[in-house]
Amino acid sequence: MNMYTESSLFSGRKGAALTAVILLHLVFGYALYTLGSKIVIKLAPPPFELTPIEPPKHTVEPPVPLVIQPRIVQTPPEFPTFSPPSDSDVTVDKLPPDPPRIIPQTPAQPHVLAPVRMDPRHPLRIGKDYYPDASVRANEMGRCVVQATVAADGRIIAASIQTRSGFDRLDQACLNAVKGQRMLPATEDGKPIEGTVAIPITWNLSE
């Protein structure tokens, strides 16, 4: 019985040749690695040395700019020549006359008049003493109105019958009763003046 045995890659001639090729590759690779490292080392530049730079001893000032001011030349203005107008060219209009001045007049103050009034300090007392006896016996009664004139001092200086009573004795008794009596005089602007007043008097026996 024959048995098949697989031969190894490194056996025989083929194996020796393969081994030789592998060894050459290893040698060649090692040589390239060693040569490359030397080239890199040789090509590396030396380190730089930094030397500080000293600042300049003298400062350089910038140039001053030159300013050129423009020259202004002012020319005097030209005025037109003026010639006064002649008399023939000038016309003067006559001014209208001033309007008349109206002076306001102070209105007259109205006069304040007060009539004759009864004087409470001197009331008119016309009682039975002035009643005529004949008129009492004849039972004469009536009413008359006396117009009396009162002076500035308040005295009744005159009297007249304005309305009759119907009996002469009673009318005369009215005139006799007011004579010598006093009243408050009339006034004008607060000043006493002479005035008149109507005084009614009633004669009655029934009271």
Q: Which key terms come to mind for this protein?
A:
single chain, 207 residues, alpha+beta, 3-stranded antiparallel sheet
Give an account of the 3D structure.
This protein has 207 residues and is an alpha+beta fold. 23% of the residues lie in helices and 16% in strands. The strands form two sheets. It has a three-stranded antiparallel sheet, with no helix packed on it. A three-stranded antiparallel sheet has the order 3-2-6, covered by helices on one side. The chain is rod-shaped and about 215 Å long. The relative contact order is 0.12. Mean pLDDT is 76; it is low at 1-6 and 39-44.
How would the blueprint of this fold be written?
Elements: H1 12-43, E1 113-114, H2 133-137, E2 142-150, E3 156-163, H3 168-178, E4 186-188, E5 191-193, E6 195-203
Antiparallel strand pairs: 1-4, 2-3, 2-6, 4-5
